[in-house]
């Protein structure tokens, strides 16, 4: 099959062990990011299979309608960037493993790295040292502080464990079923969302982006945070109301942020407010970007392609397309 892979920025996939699963297929890998419909339609005009790296490129109806050969989209995790209805109408199978019960340890570790970097002012201290200065501030330790986990799922539960290991008091806010799980794991549940934002010294967001969670962190929530508090987001930028975090930081509540995700990616605007605030630590959406995590993710993605080629598609998001007939 003719397979196109988008947004492999560092040409990493062909170096993975699991890439051998695509042996015998005609594979084209694109290393730059393109979102324009005309350019994508030209690139993908012969593709029968499209491999997506998370949500880096939006795949909407105007593009899909110009890809008559496309039969399968294979990816992993949630799919707000894909027009599933259009895929179904056009006979395109979407396979996406939701990997229930398998946390992204890479994302959890990056979250904790950002917590430590922000609280101890590591990037600022490094920049000052390279500029010929010595110590430029006094950071804060984690022990005995309150770590807030907003969304107690696969990744949130791992980060909670990191906090406990560092001697922190862990407080959780989530939907009721997740709160029950947090309690059974020995963590405290906040009495209310307002109390959660008021009491925590660090809040880390760990939710999937779906309609119910879009904008779930409002400006009023951020305004309740302590002026010494840290907001960490390694999940998805739209979990926070558009513009709310920048405005909150300018107002001084919270006093700090550590961010790995942005409303528009890849972020190349060096004038973006978050990149120019001394109290903010920013990384370029590298939470899940580790060689080990890629092996796990793309083993699933390539297995989905193999299953489709064998006539037994797996992890099908739009099973209706199987009943109405896939593209020949």
Key traits:
328 residues, alpha/beta, 5-stranded parallel beta sheet, 12 helices
Gist?
33% of the residues lie in helices and 15% in strands. The chain has helices at 37-43, 61-64, 84-90, 105-119, 122-130, 154-165, 176-184, 193-199, 219-223, 244-251, 291-309, 320-324; strands spanning 2-5, 26-29, 49-51, 72-76, 93-97, 146-150, 169-173, 188-189, 202-205, 230-233, 256-259, 280-282.
The radius of gyration over CA amounts to: 21 Å
Number of strands: 12
Broad shape:
globular
Q: In DSSP terms, counting alpha (H) and pi (I) runs of 4 or more, how many helices?
A: 12
- Report low-confidence residues grouped into runs of 5 or more: none
Q: What proportion of the residues is helical, as a percent range?
A: 25-40%
Question: What structural class results from the helix and strand content?
Answer: alpha/beta
Strand content: 5-15%
> What is the CA–CA distance across the termini?
13 Å
Strand order of the largest sheet: 8-7-6-9-10-11-12
The overall pLDDT average reads: 96
Structure description:
Helix 9 links the parallel strand 9 and strand 10. The model has no long low-confidence stretch (mean pLDDT 96). With 328 residues, this protein is an alpha/beta fold. The strands form two sheets. A seven-stranded parallel beta sheet has the order 8-7-6-9-10-11-12, sandwiched between helices. It has a five-stranded parallel beta sheet with strand order 2-1-3-4-5, sandwiched between helices. The protein has twelve helices and twelve strands.
């Amino acid at each position: 099959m003719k397979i196109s892979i988008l947004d492999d920025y560092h040409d990493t996939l062909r170096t993975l062990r699991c890439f051998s699963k695509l042996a015998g297929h005609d594979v084209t890998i694109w290393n730059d990011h393109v979102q324009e419909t005309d350019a994508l339609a030209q690139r993908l005009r012969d593709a029968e299979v499209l491999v997506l790296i998370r949500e880096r490129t939006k795949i909407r109806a105007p593009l899909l309608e110009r890809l008559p050969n496309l039969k399968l989209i294979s990816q992993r995790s949630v799919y707000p960037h894909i027009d599933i209805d259009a895929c179904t109408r056009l006979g395109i199978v979407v396979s996406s493993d939701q990997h229930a019960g398998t946390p992204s340890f890479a994302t959890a570790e990056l979250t904790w790295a950002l917590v430590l970097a922000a609280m101890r002012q590591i990037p600022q201290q490094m920049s000052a040292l390279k500029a010929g200065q010595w110590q430029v501030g006094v950071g804060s330790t984690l022990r005995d502080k309150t770590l807030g986990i907003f969304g107690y799922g696969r990744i949130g539960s791992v980060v909670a464990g990191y906090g406990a290991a560092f001697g922190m008091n862990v407080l959780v806010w989530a939907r009721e079923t997740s709160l029950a799980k947090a309690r059974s794991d020995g963590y405290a549940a906040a009495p209310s969302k307002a109390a959660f934002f008021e009491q925590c010294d660090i809040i880390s967001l760990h939710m999937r982006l779906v309609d119910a969670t879009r904008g779930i962190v409002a400006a009023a929530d951020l305004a309740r945070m302590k002026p010494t508090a840290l907001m960490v987001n390694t999940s998805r930028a739209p979990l926070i109301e558009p513009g709310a975090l920048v405005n909150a930081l300018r107002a001084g509540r919270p006093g700090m942020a550590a961010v790995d995700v942005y409303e528009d990616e890849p972020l190349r605007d060096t004038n973006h407010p978050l990149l120019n605030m001394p109290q903010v630590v920013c990384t370029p959406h590298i939470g899940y970007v580790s060689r080990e995590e890629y092996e796990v993710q793309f083993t699933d993605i390539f297995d989905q392609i193999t299953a489709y080629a064998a006539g037994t598609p797996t992890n099908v998001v739009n099973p209706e397309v199987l009943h109405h007939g896939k593209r020949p």
